[in-house]
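Thread: sanity check for a docking pose with zinc ion

Original post by kr_44:
Hi all, I'm comparing my docking run against an independent structure prediction. Below are the sequence and the ligand SMILES. Could someone generate the full complex and paste the structure tokens? I mainly care about where the ligand ends up relative to the chain.
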Amino acid sequence: MKRTGKNILLWVLSVFFFLSTFIMLSTSWAAVFFIIPAVLLNPAISKNLQERFSFQSNKWVKISAAIVPFLIYGAVAPATPAAAGANNLISPSVSSSISAISSEVEKKLAATSNTSSEPVEQPAPAPKNGAKLNVHFIDVGQGDSEFIELPNGQTMLIDAGNPENGSQIVTYIKGLGHNKVDYLIATHPHADHIGGMTTVVNGLDIGKIYMPKASSNTQTFEDLLTAIQKKGLKINTAKAGVNLFKAGTLNADIIAPVNITGDDLNQYSAVIMLTYGDNKFLFTGDAGNESEGQITSDIKADVLKVGHHGSDTSTSQAFLNKVSPKYAVIEVGKDNSYGHPTAATLAKLEKIGATIYRTDKDGTIIFTSDAKTITVNKKSSSIKEQAPPSSAPAVAAAPQQPAPAEKKPEVTAPATNNKSVTVYITKTGEKYHTGGCRYLKKSKIAISLEDAQAQGYGPCSVCHPPQ
Ligand SMILES: [Zn+2]
Ligand SMILES: [Zn+2]
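Reply from moderator J.T.:
Ran it for you. Here is the predicted complex with zinc ion included:
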């Protein structure tokens, strides 16, 4: 009886060490030593060993067989991680040298992304009868920014132009009497869309932030993540199927990106359908033909913010037929070097019967809806006339009082005084850049835009500097 009891105990210990071997191997190779007590303590195996090799394992052999592996494991394991755990133990300096900025960006993205399942939130208040919706297509030169005064008193900002537009946008929003952006959307991480957003995040109260799952290694993008992190805000993923708010006849849905892969950031653009009663506004960011083709929801709209500044990589005929807009708005810089908007896109829009507005010609354009009809108001008809003298600093002359849009007489469009803007060149390059461009890693020389152009530098096609 005594012998059976002892055998059961040895079997249990043997099995314990066997299992330990396999479980612990995921933490360190040193766990292989646990196989020794598993073998030596096993009554069947040790009997076999005795018979074959006349090896007599006494009590002390068994005890040390059980203890020694623990000692080896304890000494070796922390220093030699198995492959699975290795990444966590590489010192930060080593891993950062592997991919300097991207790991920083990833860390910040992880710190700011909203992973919690949607908490119980205050629903958006419903608009009062007859309340007005104002959509401001802000003239930010070659870039996008749309500020929306919702009829329920809330506000939304889609994109914030280039870095030099940030303070102009903040001034513009404050001039309308708002201190808060309830819904902030960065359509995609290009500098002509998120450039001014850091200043917006720092300068105004921010509610919820939405961005597509697409990151960039530019300083501009990293700065934005830092600003969001510092304010303790979280980023919600912008993708098809996300509802921004619904309150009575007021609704906003994100309808793209649907299923974008690859590295064309434009295709990841958040596309937003805003509905107020009978009126619909479609905001496309820089979404191209690929993304347009994936959208499955109803896209018929009264007003279309034309994709990618009127480039011919967006606004496919099939997409345009479905939208069938009454009004098309192109946010574009005067005499930009990209050739935006293209003649082909303009022709398509004309053919479908859309009235075309362009920020390079019309300045800031404001659409007002009472849920039934839409009226259009332009803030400036000529950018040049209203631009301050080129020696003056580029300060936005935003409206002083929050008067109704219709009554505002002449308001200077922001970012019109590009000549006094600072851009950056490199020692050897032929292009000029915005401060956050990735080409400025090795050398970064500040220069006025005027001088850069006079010296024959051209605009960088990656960071879209002012022109
Ligand atoms: Zn763009
Ligand atoms: Zn873009």
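Residues 144, 190, 192-193, 286, 309 surround zinc ion (ligand 1) (CB under 6 Å). Hope that helps with the comparison, let us know if your pose agrees.
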